[in-house]
Amino acid sequence: MSEDRRAQPAEPAASQRKPYITGNWKLWGTRAQAAEYCRTFAPLLDDPAADVGLFVPFTALDTVISALDGTGVTVGAQTMSGEDSGAFTGEVSAAMLTEGGAGAVLLGHSERRQLYGETDRALQAKVPAALAAGLAPILCVGETEEEREAGDMERKLRHQIGEGLESVPDDRLADVTVAYEPIWAIGTGQVATPDQAQEAIGFVRALVGGRSEEAAQRIRVLYGGSVKPGNAAELLSQPDVDGALVGGASLDPEGFAAIVAAAG
Ligand code: PEP
Question: Which residue's C-alpha comes closest to atom 1 of ligand 1?
């Protein structure tokens, strides 16, 4: 190999991170609704420039996995246990998800944190457990309106990223995706400005860079919070915004496909 070739940087440039557009159905999607959604959605995916993920209820996983087979869409769950087995009624383990064909899992969504008491300490175990099982985790982080107004956004993100990624070895950091979701923007229609999204996501990337500069260049950091077909392109054009986590707007297959197309 020539000197010139050896001098190439090991890290891909920012533009080499493939966009990742993900939908979170939350508490929506009987198996019949899921099948109908996929019948509309699959034909709308015309060799997308982005990776696409759908996070659906446990009970709809197999329906969506079979209906989207061959489309390249990653299908995942919206939460999981950090435990393998035991007296944890109602929980689902990473192995149960992979056995069922799931490829990914959302972890630490603000609704899980706020409504079901999911803690940063629990996520510290869940993120590596997902990776070890072969699931691609999306770690969700973000501040409340009060925290933002008090100037506490960076402190909150530092804490959530520090704890959530603490037990992930440096060489696996880029296998995690982070979704920056300001809580004040989730389900409210009050989307962050592109500058706000860029600033927070740039900060998340810098935090990862504190562990590994190579991982910081490779890890994908998404924006989530009231993303719609009409605002997606501008958010996605920010240099550090690698994609979107879409809640409400992902329930409309045509609208979600339009957000996927906006990433191209
Ligand atoms: C979400 O559920 O993660 C989300 C961002 O929801 P919405 O797009 O509806 O704000």
Answer: 247
Q: Which residues contact 107 (CB under 8 A, 6 or more apart)?
A: 79, 80, 123, 126, 127, 130, 137, 138, 139, 140, 164
Cα separation of the two ends of the chain? 34
Which among 21, 22, 24, 259 is the best mutation to test ligand 1's pocket, defined by most ligand atoms within 8 Å of the CB?
24
Are 157 and 207 in contact, with CB atoms under 8 Å apart? yes
For residue 24, give the ligand 1 atom closest to its CA: 2
pLDDT tens sequence across 72-96: 999 999 999 999 999 999 999 999 9
pTM above 0.90, yes or no: yes
Q: Which atom of ligand 1 is nearest to the CA of 110?
A: 3
Give the closest residue (by CA) to ligand 1 atom 8.
Answer: 247
**pLDDT tens track for 231-260:** 999 999 999 999 999 999 999 999 999 999
The percentage of the chain sitting over the pLDDT mark of 90, rounded to a whole number, equals 93
Among the listed residues 132, 46, 39, 38, the one whose alpha carbon sits nearest the alpha carbon of residue 84? 132
> What confidence score (pLDDT) does residue 87 get?
98
Which of 186, 222, 223 best tests ligand 1's pocket when mutated (most atoms within 8 Å of CB)? 186
